[in-house]
Amino acid sequence: MGNRVMLVERDRLMLEKLTQVVQGTNGFELVARYQSISDALGQGTIFNPNLILLDIEEQNSVALIADFLKVYPKAAILCMGEKWKAESASHIVQAGARGYIIKPFTGLELQEAVDTFVKLGTEAGCETLVFFSPKGKSGKTTLIANLATALARKTHEQVGIIDADLQFGDMSVFFNLAPKTTIVEAARDAKFLSPVTLHPYFMPVMQNVSVLCGTATPNLIDKVSIRRFENIISMSRSLFRYLLIDVPPGFNPTSIAAAEQSNTTFLVSMINDAYEIDHMKRALEIFKDWEDYEERVKAIFTRVEPCNSQSQRELARQLGYPVTAIIPNEYGIVSDAADNGKMATDIRPDSPLAQSVDRLADEITGRGHRIRWSAS
């Protein structure tokens, strides 16, 4: 069954423009169009639309969506507006709409909106995961890249990565990418973007995994304002089931902004000497300002040897806080995988590294038993 579209647009000229777009897009049939909300609610049922493009400008969007869902319970609703507003978009999703598209739009943007929102879901189901390190050299990039692959493989859902380490992010190097667009261009254009038009700024790296690459050079850090960065996160939540964000080490406006928007913030530290435990303790103290920090903040240690339950319990005891995951030191496998343009979890799925990443993916998706080693 194709897309049987009912178009509801109060502005006559915009209605004519969007009518031409819908009629000229393959896979879309315009079965009804209205300027009047009351006419659309009272007359449109005879046309049996399965997709409603609904103008919500200057309307009580939540109540309006509720009215249309009551009359058209089997139809997907895409709301239309002239500018992306994160708060408004969140409200309309919570009210039951599938997504939001900026008008006027092209046929390609309409198709992408349907593919993104109607087929894949909305930001209501996005898990935003931020990876933060008290200091540098924590192994975050390796962990994020392999974890994204594991999540995509296990769930067959869309997984996005944002490289927000604005000076020294190396996700593009890790994936051997030469991006034409990065977070700098996305931030520059954010004022004019919506989730659908943001999507092309992400580069696909494998099936169901895409990356928004970091700055090309460290001096471009000032090109990404915190407000634009927050908008990018908000829009990206509408594109992916899992959104993994790599932030710079230490507490700074970028890492704080990302953490505030996260469902979970992972504190990641590489075991080299005794100081890592102290750094993690200090980071945990700062996050205790959140009332729900025990649910939202998780501890991970990398390059742990031996990588076993006893080590995990001992680290939890020293930290005085549950340790969600430990990752072994398998630099050789990681290096070989990078040289071949693959993930370590793909070339050696039976390795301790792959098994550790898989357990973390199960923890995130709820497939595991949510085992954590306590500090006792």
From TrEMBL:
Entry keyword Phosphoprotein: yes
Domain of life, per lineage: Bacteria
UniProt modified residues of type 4-aspartylphosphate: D55
Gene3D superfamilies the record matches: 3.40.50.2300, P-loop containing nucleotide triphosphate hydrolases (3.40.50.300)
Occurrences of domain Response regulatory (ranges): 4-118
Keywords, alphabetical: Phosphoprotein
Pfam families, sorted: CbiA (PF01656), Response_reg (PF00072)
Coiled-coil boundaries: none
Leader peptide range in chain numbering: none
Name of the protein described by the UniProt record: P-loop NTPase
One GO term (biological process): phosphorelay signal transduction system
GO molecular function: ATP binding; ATP hydrolysis activity
GO CC list: cytoplasmic side of plasma membrane; cytosol
PANTHER family per record: SEPTUM SITE-DETERMINING PROTEIN MIND HOMOLOG, CHLOROPLASTIC-RELATED, SLR0110 PROTEIN
